[in-house]
């Protein structure tokens, strides 16, 4: 039964009691309290506005000519309607969401109206509801009121700033990224209902946009084309130019016009050969070059280039490239940035806490921010301009099982290295894997940056042995190959087949490369689904690094991955998982679940990838197995959750000689309005498939939020970021359900983002303090590193596995496009090979 804070029913046999709150005096598992500032700004209704009402109207816009109405068309029609009759349609009293909704502080006329812009439209305005603003003071603000306020808050920033999704950006606050791209500063805003009431959150944001520049410069600078007057594009260049320009908005400079056009593509021929017909007495057949010379007195310099097709609704509109400019302020897709641009954007976006806080406060106090505007005044709403103050707690770090204890730890345990207790503690260490058979497939062998084989083998073996891995001193074989093999799936298949079907099959195959190659995806697909060979890829620029410290660190990280992939543990909690270890007579299993969606703009045939992972070693809970499924495009519900989880529970039962009594499910990637789906569909599916009734706790982990925690000035440990283990569960959280923010990692760069955890169901009767300690301590057991991570490992692993499924899909699509003999005719993911499906192959 789902937790219901408003009406718990303890007499019901399946009732879930409210989760217990922790002590807030720094007791329990907290070592101290900390004063924090949070980027939440209180929304208040003025005393004289308690009877204020917002009128919600639905607007339907229909063109006389059957055609789709774009968002820009809708905005133009709405503006024209209001401009023709400003007395009855006062624009200063209304906010429009660009779609079907208008919110007004005054009544508007309803009915049907005719509006003409570039064509005729029929506009229907209908009153939907009268929304009372007194609901702002309610602990459960209605969703329609929140929507209305959100649109009203966005009205003022939309007037002068660039709008992209939930964000607003200043066109004059940018840094150049080259290739006609710039990074613009901005902010993201939104509304949340918290314990203190309704608040506006405001967060700093940076996004890449296109700069205003001539199309010819795009070809010269961005595409590195050296244009001359008689320059003509070959077929490959045409495809490249079409891919860059198609869909972009441009302006024209051969005549005075502020209108923006969308590039539909390129003409088949150049301006001399592209012809069209004009009706009328002065009409006839013209080439584009002839028309521009006679109509505008403009001669075309680059006449051998194709023209841009700027037509609309089937009407041709051919304009030479040299008379077109890219309209500024268009969002540049993040996935299309090259490595340099992506790194530059990342550095700009990683604002430290001081700079981020100052930027947020400047925004809320600026004339373009969300806290000002005539419309807000008409509503009788005021928004505070100071951040919310809250007291957080810093949780105690756990003790870990280590191979070498430092002096501080020895002093804490009050022991000497000569004591028998020291020898006992040295034996309480994570288990290391045993590697009798390993091999190297060297893709770098034919390059100038080939692997330094001798030193690599010696150093890697030494590093693994230091970490408790029993490994043979030399590989079974070193097979030289080349990077070209990664580009040829059929050759790669043959090479891997020799490795997998040989007399001595390696437990792990190490694959040095000189760079991250597209063939990496095919390698993983073949090894993990076809041959069942565990692989570990590495880059020779790191393995051959002359900086001994950096090379040693890189090899240490490789050692962590190899040990975990082959069944070893890198870090375990000395006293076990909090709360769970105290219930020694009960078996607990941890499950993580996530869905990876295709990038925006991908076609509907690209599937979403669902992943479920489960712990299989109790009580350490450090080893996980995974299951992956493809499902329909951008579907968030994990449609086979019950089947995947059932497989993992059965594996757990075989390994631990018994079924788990308790299951803790961590779900990643769902929004607040999808919590019902998790409980009513995914959890129900699991219960139906399990065949027995363990106690289940369901916890959602959210990283895609914009709440930020800042230490008060003069407080804290001296670091500008909050310390690891900082938890906040009052004031800025949702009072209707158990939830808290936890910053479990050490923020070394940028501003630490806490993870927002929501407990949706708790059959195990945990207290909130117990849940917080459990999650924080688990963050120290992530196999890829030796420091605590920002996200509880079960969902961290699920995220990695879901991405691995995306790697498989992209490899399949690449095989199909290349016409390989290995191509697959469907989008279903292949089943993991039985030899690796129960290992941590995905690390």
TrEMBL record:
Which keywords does this chain's UniProt record carry?
RNA-mediated gene silencing
Q: What is the protein's given name?
A: Protein argonaute 2
Family the entry assigns: Belongs to the argonaute family. Ago subfamily.
Segments for region (Disordered): 1-26
* Domain Piwi as annotated: residue spans: 508-810
| GO MF | RNA binding
UniProt cross-references to Pfam families, sorted A to Z: ArgoL1, ArgoN, PAZ, Piwi
Per its UniProt record, what SUPFAM superfamilies does this chain match? PAZ domain (SSF101690), Ribonuclease H-like (SSF53098)
User: What are the GO BP annotations of this UniProt entry?
Assistant: regulatory ncRNA-mediated gene silencing
Residue ranges annotated for the PAZ domain, each copy included: 214-328
């Amino acid at each position: 039964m789902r937790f219901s804070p408003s009406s718990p029913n303890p007499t019901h046999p399946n009732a879930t009691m409210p989760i217990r709150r922790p002590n807030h005096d720094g007791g329990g598992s907290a070592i101290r309290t900390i004063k924090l500032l949070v980027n939440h700004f209180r929304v208040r209704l003025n005393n004289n506005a308690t009877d204020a009402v917002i009128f919600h109207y639905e607007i339907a816009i229909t063109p006389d000519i059957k055609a789709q109405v774009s968002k820009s068309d809708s905005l133009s029609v709405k503006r024209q309607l209001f401009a023709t009759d400003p007395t009855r349609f006062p624009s200063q009293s209304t906010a429009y969401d660009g779609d079907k909704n208008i919110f007004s502080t005054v009544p508007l006329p309803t009915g049907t109206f005719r509006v003409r812009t570039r064509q005729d439209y029929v506009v229907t305005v209908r009153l939907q509801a009268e929304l009372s603003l007194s609901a702002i003071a309610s602990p459960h603000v209605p969703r329609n009121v929140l929507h209305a306020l959100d649109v009203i808050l966005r009205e003022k920033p939309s007037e002068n700033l660039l709008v992209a999704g939930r964000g607003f950006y200043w066109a004059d606050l940018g840094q150049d990224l080259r290739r006609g791209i710039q990074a613009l500063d901005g902010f993201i805003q939104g509304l949340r209902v918290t314990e203190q009431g309704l608040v506006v959150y405001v967060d700093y944001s940076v996004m890449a946009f296109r700069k205003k520049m001539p199309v010819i410069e795009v070809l010269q600078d961005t595409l590195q084309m050296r244009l001359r007057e008689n320059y003509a594009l070959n077929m490959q260049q045409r495809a490249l130019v079409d891919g860059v320009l198609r869909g972009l908005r441009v302006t024209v400079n051969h005549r005075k016009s502020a209108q923006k056009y969308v590039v539909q593509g390129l003409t088949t021929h150049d301006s001399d050969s592209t012809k069209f017909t004009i009706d009328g007495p002065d009409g006839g057949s013209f080439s584009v070059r002839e028309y521009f010379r006679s109509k505008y007195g403009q001669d075309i310099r680059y006449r051998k280039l194709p023209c841009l097709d700027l037509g609309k609704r089937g009407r041709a509109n051919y304009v030479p490239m040299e008379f077109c400019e890219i309209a500024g302020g268009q969002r540049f897709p993040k996935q299309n940035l090259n490595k340099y641009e992506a790194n530059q954007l990342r550095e700009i976006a990683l604002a430290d806490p001081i700079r981020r806080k100052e930027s947020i406060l400047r925004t809320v106090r600026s004339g373009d921010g969300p806290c000002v505007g005539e419309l807000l005044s008409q509503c009788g709403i005021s928004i505070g301009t100071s951040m919310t103050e809250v007291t957080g707690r810093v949780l105690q770090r756990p003790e870990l099982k280590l191979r070498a204890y430092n002096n501080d730890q020895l002093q804490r345990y009050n022991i000497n290295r000569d004591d028998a207790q020291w020898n006992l503690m040295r034996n309480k260490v994570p288990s290391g894997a045993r590697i009798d058979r390993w091999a190297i497939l060297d893709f770098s062998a034919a390059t100038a940056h080939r692997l330094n084989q001798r030193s690599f083998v010696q150093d890697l073996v030494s590093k693994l042995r230091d970490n408790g891995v029993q490994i043979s001193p030399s590989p079974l074989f070193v097979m030289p190959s080349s990077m070209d093999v990664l580009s040829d799936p059929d050759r790669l298949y043959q090479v891997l087949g020799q490795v997998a079907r040989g007399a001595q099959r390696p437990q792990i195959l190490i694959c040095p490369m000189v760079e991250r190659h597209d063939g990496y995806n095919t390698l993983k697909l073949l090894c993990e689904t076809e041959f069942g060979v565990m692989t570990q890829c590495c880059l020779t620029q790191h393995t051959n690094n002359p900086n001994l410290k950096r090379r040693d660190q890189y090899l240490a990280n490789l050692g962590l991955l190899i040990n975990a992939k082959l069944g070893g543990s890198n870090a375990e909690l000395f006293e076990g998982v909090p709360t769970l270890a105290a219930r020694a007579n009960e078996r607990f299993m941890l499950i993580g679940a996530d869905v990876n969606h295709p990038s925006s703009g991908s076609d509907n045939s690209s599937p979403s990838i669902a992943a479920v992972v489960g712990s299989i070693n109790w009580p350490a809970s450090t080893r996980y197995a995974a299951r992956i499924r493809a499902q329909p495009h951008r579907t968030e519900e994990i449609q086979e959750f019950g089947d995947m989880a059932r497989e993992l529970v059965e594996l757990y039962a075989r390994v631990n000689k018994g079924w788990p009594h308790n299951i803790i499910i961590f779900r990643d990637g769902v929004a607040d309005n999808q919590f019902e789906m998790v409980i009513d569909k995914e959890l129900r599916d699991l219960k139906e498939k399990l065949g027995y009734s363990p106690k289940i706790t369901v916890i959602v982990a959210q990283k895609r939020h914009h709440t930020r925690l800042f230490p008060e000035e003069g407080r804290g440990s001296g670091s500008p970021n909050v310390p690891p283990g900082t938890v906040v569960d009052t004031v800025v959280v949702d009072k209707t359900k158990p939830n808290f923010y936890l910053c479990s990692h050490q923020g070394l760069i940028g501003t630490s983002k806490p993870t927002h955890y929501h407990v949706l169901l708790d059959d195990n009767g945990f207290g909130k303090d117990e849940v917080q300690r459990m999650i924080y301590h688990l963050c120290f057991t992530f196999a890829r590193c030796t420091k605590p991570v920002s996200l509880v490992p079960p969902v961290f692993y699920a995220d990695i596995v879901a991405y691995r499924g995306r790697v498989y899909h992209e490899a399949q699509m690449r095989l199909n496009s290349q016409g390989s003999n290995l191509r697959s005719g469907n989008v279903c993911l292949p089943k993991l090979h039985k030899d690796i499906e129960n290992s941590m192959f995905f690390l």
